[in-house]
Amino acid sequence: MKPVVVLMGRPNVGKSTLFNRLVRGRQALVDDLPGVTRDRHYGEASWDDKPFTVIDTGGFLTGDDDPFAPQIREQLNLAVAQADVLVLILDGRTGLSPYDRDLAAMLRRSGKPVFYLVNKIEHQRQQASLGEFYSLGIEMFYEVSAEHGIGMDDFLEDLTTGFPDAGSQEEPPVQEPVRIAIVGRPNVGKSSLANRLFGSPRVVVNDQAGTTRDAIELAVTRKEKQFVLVDTAGIRRKGRVTRKLEKVSILKSLKSMDDCHVALILIDAAEGITDQDITIAGYAEKKGCGAIFLLNKWDRVDKAEKGEKAFISELRQMAKFLSYAPAMTISALTGQRCHKILDMAARVYEEYRFRINTGTLNRIIADAVQREEPSLHKGRRLKFFYATQVATRPPCFVCFVNYPKAVHFSYERYLVNQLRQMIPLTLTPIRLYFREKTGRMDFSGKTREKERIALKKQRITTKREKQRKDQSQKKRQRDRKTGG
Ligand code: GDP
Ligand code: GDP
Description:
This protein is α/β, with parallel strands linked by helices. About 35% of the residues lie in helices and about 20% in strands. The protein contains 14 helices and 16 strands. The strands form 3 sheets. The chain has a 7-stranded mixed sheet, sandwiched between helices. A 6-stranded mixed sheet has the order 9-10-8-11-12-13, with helices on both faces. The chain is elongated, with a radius of gyration of 28 Å. The two termini are about 40 Å apart. The structure holds guanosine-5'-diphosphate (2 copies). One guanosine-5'-diphosphate (GDP) binds near residues 9, 120 and 146.
């Protein structure tokens, strides 16, 4: 992710002049979302092949505003939270103002790196009067003229020291296969569909139930994307299915969801949607994997009696909790629309593993909160400090607030919907947590056990990754010793 540089300073010091100079030749984005009262400018800049994002906070405060008004404070705090590096611009012509001191103190409190620019220095003799800026308690500042481009090289050189260069950011992400599970009641057509998607001779391994090997993985490539069918144990062809065996096979099929990115939830449309189908869908929701509803055996459905629309709206009614899962009618037997399934799975997966940059996320949350303020809770006002994405697969966000318990579930839903719309993420489950700005994650009430487990898993994975890294490092050291 590119570093974010935020330009701060009172009105007329030259923020937008500097901004324009930095993003020159590149497109500056003016944020004109409805409900945003202040302009915010985002732009892409680069120095010495090191790209970074610049945010001009100029619009937050115009000449007539009270710089100490709480809503302006909040906006500035959010901007500071988004920043990797802060730049405070001071005016070398008008000199120091009390507001400069106030801003400088605020930036220093953030603990983030701050660069101080004294702008509008075009002549040697102006430099004589710059001593007063040291009274801000700063060790050094850059004398520049944003308008005439004086002093820019030194400043940019220092600013971007330590920024990653473009090459290292463009490393192609490792393409991992999308792991697919096909789940559903017995006889809905799981093996038939697996055969169609992953090649026919290999799935049907044995006609006798319960005797084949578990966890066979089948791979297929489509449009240069790789897919793996995980744990076919649940979908092998069964002999006569006894009641007990039916249960076992459903359990196995559900287990395959533990290990998948996208579950294809098969439903026998000829039989109609049953409660058991919805129970299975409930597991997908609990696991937090991506999901696609497939109404199978569409060839056998009397469409005059009940069409696709009616089927899907009935499904939506019964499985409201999976509203993000796309639904398709297919026939595994005739192959109708089956070629679209993996393409859809790839789209779901792209969202499932999506990562947003912190700046954009905070902008979306800030705008959402501004558009619709949370109601008071026991007389206390809910305050949002900043948000961050803590995990992918599925995307998981944490909002730091002053008082997590004050987040009403309807407001939580509003924020989730805003994230879905604005990012946008429409096909994947997402998680949103609220955490007190200092303190532990709040899991009470609204958040559920499985999410805690998911987070725990996340930590375990990173722990494991660390172990693996340590091991390979040790091995390298050993190799070096034996080699030399
Ligand atoms: P902002 O309100 O902080 O965004 O400030 P602007 O970028 O709009 O600049 C305010 C005024 O200062 C404008 O009239 C600019 O032309 C002028 N200005 C900006 N940078 C310089 C500079 O380096 N030298 C001089 N002399 N004027 C400048
Ligand atoms: P599984 O138990 O979920 O793996 O289901 P199977 O793939 O074994 O299918 C059960 C039965 O439904 C078999 O007789 C299939 O031929 C049949 N079947 C599967 N898909 C379709 C379909 O799209 N249309 C029709 N008409 N029959 C299907």
